[in-house]
Design a protein that fits this description.
Organism: Deinococcus soli
Strand content: 25-35%
Number of strands: 8
Number of helices: 3
CATH architecture of the largest domain: Roll
CATH superfamily of the largest domain: 2,3-Dihydroxybiphenyl 1,2-Dioxygenase, domain 1
CATH topology of the largest domain: 2,3-Dihydroxybiphenyl 1,2-Dioxygenase, domain 1
Order of helices and strands: EHEEEEHEHEE
Pfam family, one: YycE-like_C
Protein name: Glyoxalase
CATH class of the largest domain: Alpha Beta
Radius of gyration: 16 Å
Largest sheet: 4 strands, mixed
Strand order of the largest sheet: 1-4-3-2
Distance between the termini: 30 Å
């Protein structure tokens, strides 16, 4: 690394979860992410890594073994996926069938340009109809 970030650097977003099975159903079976890794026997926590093969990012959900770490999402803790087109109604139905709940966004921008769904731990997933490069 030359001291500068590049598009090749990987992004890892980590969050606590109270139920990794429910999270896997929501993000893998509902949204369509792949389980990149799942471990129940790490010293500190069980973990679930989700993403897309070849992508420079992944979502890691952890459940600590020996202490209680509650997810503390706010209405502005968002994971935004820019779909560059309409949100497929069957995707919303799958997310709801796999533990999600559609909610109104705190910021009306997201209701104008997409759909917000709460995951089983209360974090918000926004499916945005815009291309990320066209979003202000």
């Amino acid at each position: 690394m030359t001291g500068r970030l590049s598009p090749a650097h990987h992004i890892w977003l980590a969050r606590p979860s109270l139920n990794l099975d429910a999270a896997q159903r929501f993000y893998a079976d509902g949204l369509g992410l792949r389980v990149l890794h799942r471990s129940a026997h790490d010293e500190f926590a069980a973990l679930l890594m989700l993403g897309l093969p070849g992508a420079a990012w992944h979502l890691e959900l952890t459940q600590a073994h020996h202490l209680y770490v509650a997810p503390t999402p706010t209405a502005e803790d968002l994971l935004v996926l820019y779909l560059d087109g309409p949100v497929p109604p069957d995707l919303i139905r799958r997310l709801e069938a796999h533990g999600g709940g559609r909610v109104a966004a705190l910021n009306p921008y997201w209701d104008r340009w997409g759909v917000t769904v709460r995951d089983p731990d209360g974090f918000r997933l926004v499916l945005c109809t815009r291309n990320w490069q066209s979003a202000p």
